[in-house]
Fold:
Amino acid sequence: MPSDFITTIDSDDEAPNYGESSVQKGKTPVKNEDLDPDFDFDFSGGGRDTGLDLWGGDEVKGLKNGTEPINVDDIIARRRGKPLESYNDRKRKRKAAVQEEEESDDEVEGEEQPESQDEDMSEDGSEDEVSGSEDEEMSVDGSEVDSGSEEEDEDNDEDEEDEGDDEEAESSSDEDEETAAELARKEAFFAKDPTFTDDPTLPTSFAAMNLSRPLLRALTSLQLSVPTPIQARAIPLALQGRDILGSAVTGSGKTAAFMIPLLERLCYRDRGRGGQACRVLILCPTRELAVQCEAVGKALTEKGGLDIRFALLVGGLSLNAQAHTLRTLPDVLIATPGRLIDHLTNTPSFTLSALDVLVIDEADRMLEAGFTDELEEIIKACPRSRQTMLFSATMTDSVDELVKLSLDKPIRVFVDPKRNTAKGLIQEFVRIRSDDTRSPSLLALCKRTVREKCIIFFRSKALAHQMRIVFGLNGLKAAELHGNLTQEQRLQALNDFKAGSVDYLFATDLASRGLDIKGVETVINYDMPGQLAQYTHRVGRTARAGRKGRSISLVGEADRKMLKAAIKQSEADQIRNRIIPSEAINAMAEKLNEIKDEIQEVMREEKEEKLMRQADMELKKGQNMVEHQDEIYARPARTWFQSEKDKQNAKSASKDAYVGSFPDAKDAKKSKEKEGPKRGKYDGLSRKAKRRKMAMEEDQADQQSSNSTSMAIRNAKKAARPVKITEALPKAKSTGKKSGKVGGGKRKSAFDDDSKPSKKHEGMRAKPTKVNLDKKGKGGKGKSKVKRK
Ligand SMILES: Nc1ncnc2c1ncn2[C@@H]1O[C@H](COP(=O)(O)OP(=O)(O)OP(=O)(O)O)[C@@H](O)[C@H]1O
Structure:
């Protein structure tokens, strides 16, 4: 039975305190019992605290655009009359209060005040003593762990039903069974790794790698002295110019494994006349990862006093500023695919023709549906002779996928391929009996056990946001990180979390890969992700670089396959079964029920505020259009390499690659299918009729869009009237006429000095161009976009 195989944490009291590891508390991180004895990195000397400290605050600087984003915490504070405080703030206050009490009133013996039970606990302290007696038949137990051999034994019919489409759960076992043909293809495709076969004595220090002095200086000052296994193997090969396919567990230093050799190569680049060029491209799947990657490169460059310039090409930041930087031919480009293609297509004279090295971080994600078209487009723009390096903790070595990247005899550098999660990671699983108990369970867990430094992953942005309101109303401080936020908000959330001004970071899978946030103690999966790789990356946000950490996954019935797969890929001693006392869950469920209306109220207030701001923005947009229409219309329309339809298809394919495989997303799909009569809006129409209907709809959409523009312009004019009494405003009609000129009008280069918009106009540019002018620029139909050759 269970206990033979896994430890059960039968109350939600704090398990071994992962967070108290000295490394994170700023104390000297030496020989701590918490540290894994097999730990390969060298942190003696406190390297982590003084070394690479990402998300320290600089990333957000300079991004403020003046408009304060809507913050639900403010709405909650307004309603409750006091602002939310983080766990740290509360701890500080409590300490100060105790001190004050001790100083002023030494003689008075207060009644027993439980140390750890702060004001939050007073609300639910009574539930704390509950033992975990029930839940004894928890399914996250030994029989599951043990089920590697007899997986299907206890599976009921339900499970058999999803058997057919739950590929990822099966994949872990299937992966091992490669056919002889596949193996032969791999044999032919990959070159042998000399560091693995011929040379077992890998460099044990960076100094032994023949790196140039400035770089060694940089590594020393960042207190990186001993290379991690992936660094020890990949750096020498990369310095030889070999194509590499690199994989090692999360948090094992893959970023430096590619950054160090490429900076070394750049130290010896041609600096003569015409030698300046964009030589290195690092592609990352998310903006945050790109920002982080740039921070690593810049830290090494600055510490070593190297003359290497970086450009960050990611969405959400100013296109103009990026185009301007590109004009100065930076050495290293760190980009997300979409923004890079935008520049390749629309920034005059920018090319990748001088590229020496292409690095693709989180390469397996980039090879997934949705990114592939973009990746192919980028590869086409790179010279064939480049060096290519691919890295990920869950790297594919499927030849079919990799041939797309035209690798040249790549070397597979897979460190400890059997290990999928970090050694210091303890993975806990909580059984969720019915979906109604999921939110109360999370709340109970966070109110009583996981108080700070915790990332919580949600399947959807809406859910993450809703839960943030729930947390706020329960006095818990959280920030959100997902695609519904502006780039500024995203970076701000990361910094707030890093600084400890919020205790929880509510994220979607946007944050599951690559992010290296120091001191994350716990990762909670509110729901299990749809793919095992996602699970691996999510839980990999903790227990990084030899530290301890824990993940807690809430596992419902529909997640059983994923649970098995997760357990199967881990060591048995990493797995724990956590039970949250049902009384605690019930109490939280009651509480949630009580605040149900208030949650709706907060959401309503937020929506109203959003609408007001939107109206305000429309007004401003209209004003800009009126005041600067000549200049705005004179700008060249931005183009994209795919048609709008292809773009949408790629987008939904990308989404499917992540979300589509969620078990209950599938269930939802199935049940929809079962529902039957719901038909597509074009169903039953002939092709001709369908096309006609689609064209009509498109025209209507165009009409609506131009109506709203005209409306915005009219509003703007009205608003402008009182202040501009003596100035005649241009007539609304003229807007349409002007737009007609765009196609034949003279297009100005983004680099033409006279076309450079004044600072005042710069921030206004992108939106009006995209929203209103793209269609007009294309002759009003808004169908095909110019294709890049
Ligand atoms: N040689 C080293 N010695 C000690 N710490 C290191 C070393 N190299 C990197 N680190 C630290 O390890 C941490 C994790 O590194 P990094 O983010 O590159 O991991 P990763 O393998 O890319 O993880 P993921 O798979 O999640 O993207 C960073 O904080 C980094 O500073």
User: Anything to note?
Assistant: Residues 182-414 form a domain with the Rossmann fold fold (CATH 3.40.50.300). The longest strand covers residues 425-431. Residues 41-42, 52, 224, 226-228, 231, 250-256, 393, 514, 516, 540, 544-545 surround adenosine-5'-triphosphate (CB under 6 Å). The chain is about 45% helix and 10% strand.
